[in-house]
Amino acid sequence: PLIESLEVAVAEGLLDKINGSYSFGHDILQEAAYNMIQPEDRCLFHFKYGLALVPRALELKDDGMLFIAASQINRGGTSALENTDQAVSIAKLNLSAGHKAMEMSDFSSAFSFFDNGILFLPKRHWQDHYALSLSL
Fold first, then answer.
1. Closest by alpha carbon to 120, among 82, 69, 68, 65?
2. How far apart are CA 52 and CA 96, in angstroms?
3. Which of 14, 35, 96, 120 could lock 9 by a disulfide, CB 3.0 to 4.6 Å apart?
4. What's the pLDDT at 40?
5. 117: Cβ–Cβ under 8 A, 6 or more apart, which residues?
6. Looking at the predicted structure, is the pLDDT value of residue 8 above 80?
C-alpha cells in the first residue's frame, strides 16, 4: 500500500521518483507535509525514522547515512526512549558517529554526537556503563 500511495503522489506531481528513490518535487511540499504532523508527534517521528535508518547504515557501512540516523534520533530526544537498553544503544551509536566525524575533521558534529550520547546515558551510567561514559 505504501508504494501505491507513493506512485499516486508521483503521478500527481507531488513527488519525484529517480532511480527508485522518492523525493519531494519542491521544498514547499516537504514543509507542508512536515507541518501536517502534530508538533507533539514530530519528535517521535524523527526518533523512529532514525532508528529505521540505523540497520541500513551499518549494513552499507555508509557514514553519511549513519550521521543522518544519529541526528534524527537525537532530534527525537530522550523522551522517545522505550527502555534503558535502547538508551545505551543510542549512546553507543552517538559515540561511533562522533568518532567517524572526528576522523573527517568535523569537530563540531563530533562534539554534537558526543554531547547527545551523554544525554542518552541512563541513570547510574558511571556505575553500570563506566567505559561508555568515559569514552563519551
1. 82
2. 17
3. 14
4. 83
5. 90, 91, 92, 93, 94, 95, 98, 136
6. yes
